[in-house]
Amino acid sequence: MVHELSSRVHRATSSSPNLDRVLEEFQRLPFISRISRVQVRYVNNFKFTPYNGLDDPKPFLTSKSFAISRAHFSDEEYEAGCCQLFVENLVQEALGWFSRLPPNSIGSYHELTTAFLQHHSTFMIRGASNADLWNMFQRNDESLRDFMERFKRIVSKLSIADDTAISAFRNAIAYGSRFRDDIIIYEPLTLDDALHRANKYIEVEKEKDARSNHPSR
Question: Where is the Retrotransposon gag domain (predicted)?
Answer without folding.
Answer: 84-172
